[in-house]
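seq:
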Amino acid sequence: MQRSTPNRRDFLATSTALAAAGSMVPYFASTQAAFANQAKNDRPVIGCIGTGSMGTGDAHQHAGFGDIVAVCDVDANHAERARQDPRIGKGKADAYGDYRKLLERKDIDVVSVVTPDHWHVKIAIEALQAGKHVFCQKPLTLTLEENQLVRNACKKYPDRIFFIGTQQRSDRDRFLRAVNMVQKGLLGEIKKITVGINGGDVGGGFKKTDPPANLNWDMWLGQAPKVDYIKERCHYQFRWWYEYSGGKFTDWGAHHVDIATWAINADKDGEGPTTIDGTDAKHPVAYKDGYATVDNAYNSAHDYAVKCLFPSGVEMIVTSRGDNGILFEGSKGRLFVNRGKITGTPIDEQWDKDQFTPDDLVRLYKGKPFEGHKQNFFRCIKEGGQPVSDVFTHVQAMGTCHLAAIAARLNRVIKWDPKAEKIVGDDQAAAFFARKPREGFEIPRV
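struct:
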């Protein structure tokens, strides 16, 4: 009897079963070229939600592993540009202004979410509910509560791969090398980590105008409060407003705090800082009770050094001052790492010689071989298992980022119980745990 060739649906059904069982199967050649050469029926079908500058870049990379059949953006110009892009929609993909129409499509297996931060969790959870694998750009969450909501959703749907765009986790020669050295104790006991993330932009007072005809401003706002359109609130500049982001605390913190907490093994459930000191923080506008007093200027912190104390005794300083990057200081030595370099005596003298092996990379990659960032995502879709950038460790890092932003907004010291996941002894600070969404834009609780 002749066996039929499995099609894409068979492949995805198999991958779903493997993921649910946590099984390991033999590795396959997960190179972009290998995916590109797969038969069409074997390639995942992808929908891209959010096709601005970052969304376009991600879509270009996704296209090497699957076929993009739909794009979506509340800015019709962005959606149409992506639809016509020869590397994305190729003039054939469907374009939507409402992401829910894309999620309704049964033929789509993978969803890429590259929207402003305040939309991430709602869309991602609804994508999981619709049976999709999810790629979501960082920072995944807007609030501490959203950390819990998306983590719960991933636990409910363990057969769906959820991957975060924290690509530093796939930088072998810099960030992975630093994490390996710290985890192996080559720097000795870590005493202090300085996380340089630069400061946010300063600007105002911006003009309130009618939104352009190509932009659905109400949909762009989503769960955020209804306000008049200001061009500088939208697209790339959204990250300088606490209404839609956490400023640089979450923008760059999602990268560097993530690496720092991973290195010191503080990325597990119940881990996190217990004291967060935001007394050394400035904002570009006046604040009262943690809220900006004007509505037409950037309002996220631009000058700060927030101190986060962990139960292990590690002091992590999240700061706008000095070089962008991470400085690890241990009892034996120190090293600095960013996207351009890794420096320090331990590096100059190769303290990790013979201690940064292919096996170490597999360990850091949770049992998968080291490879490009998105390749790891699509490998996990095929094989099952946790990706290198998973939700569970990411929300631990985001917890520190959100706490730093809350302490900075209030300009005081706050206390956090990482096991109970509660701000303690400060009702005003605890009120920032969640934000009430605008009616009609509630996040599913699963």
